[in-house]
Amino acid sequence: MLGVQIHMGLEVKAYSLIDCIKKCANAGKGVQARAINLSLQICFGIDYDFSNHKCYFHVNNNVPPNQFCPANGLMPGVPRDAVANPTVVSILLCKYMYL
To answer: This protein's superkingdom (predicted)?
Structure first.
């Protein structure tokens, strides 16, 4: 999501957006292909702030009222902690989602 920041992210050292995505995708056991394996996945999404080049991991899949990676494979809704921020891109990392 362009221009959206989700609060409660964990700041991680990354030098670029690509570096941020790679670190999230490889954290723990990586991005899980099946919803049944979500307990092995550590990072469910990132926020990357282009204004200060900071990377934030979202490590909690249960963000009310939605999940970043729903176990039913459906598209996630927008978390209520999402706020407008024109310098941020928010990216979810769910391999098994239907588009």
So the answer is: Eukaryota
